[in-house]
Amino acid sequence: MPTHSDSLFNLKVFDHPLIRHKLAIARDQGTHSADFRRLLNEIAGLMTYEVSRRFDTRTITVQTPLEETIGHQLSRPVTLVPILRAGLSMTDGVMQLFPEARVGHIGIRRDETTHRPVTYYAKLPHDVGDGYAIVIDPMLATGGSACAAIRYLKEAGCRDIQMVCLVVAPEGVRRVHNEHPDVMVHAAALDRELDSNAYIRPGLGDAGDRVFGTIEV
Ligand code: PRP
Ligand code: URA
Predict the structure, then answer these.
(1) Which ligand is nearest to the CA of 145?
(2) Confidence (pTM)
(3) What CATH number corresponds to the domain at position 41?
(4) 38: Cβ below 6 Å to ligand 1?
(5) Using CA positions, which residue lies closest to atom 10 of ligand 1?
(6) Which range marks the domain in which residue 168 is found?
């Protein structure tokens, strides 16, 4: 079960031993892209079970080989919304549990001088507001990118939005709470702080570069 942080009421941190184990390997600078991607997807899959706990279901009739019985079916569509690029690294893991989910994409890059988000792409299902939206991004640092993505989804009609992250900084969680108090953030770890470059410490470096092998040498 994820636990609420004492002062960050919109944050649930997963203290599961498997998630901690995998996160430690992902943080290691010696972990290569292929393993990094696999681990992020595995962690995302483990988190999805809890993230979806309060999704509505409707009762349906099911014919077993022996008799008719009552079953349950998710009653509203689920849309996964990875923030490009790094959000793609956790999307397959969530999708394993929601094979019928739709995937909307929001492309946001953080300007590394101002640390402000720059939105460069967006494509959502036309009826995204009818169901649940799960915003996916491994890193929540200043919270600028997350808030921009959530704002975009709300403008598209979404009323039920959650975030799935890997590592979050207190500053970013607070910002999401201030701007979008209705949005719960789920994370594998709450890290200590942001540094002067707005990188999460101890963090894991630049997630997008580690996922896609674009680290400059
Ligand atoms: C990273 C990360 C988040 C954002 C977090 O993306 O994946 O989207 O930074 O920072 P913030 O909370 O301060 O906005 P980046 O801009 O590096 O783009 P990328 O995924 O394409 O590498
Ligand atoms: N983006 C990342 O990929 N890592 C950080 O620590 C902060 C922003």
Answers:
(1) 1
(2) 0.96
(3) 3.40.50.2020
(4) no
(5) 141
(6) 2-212
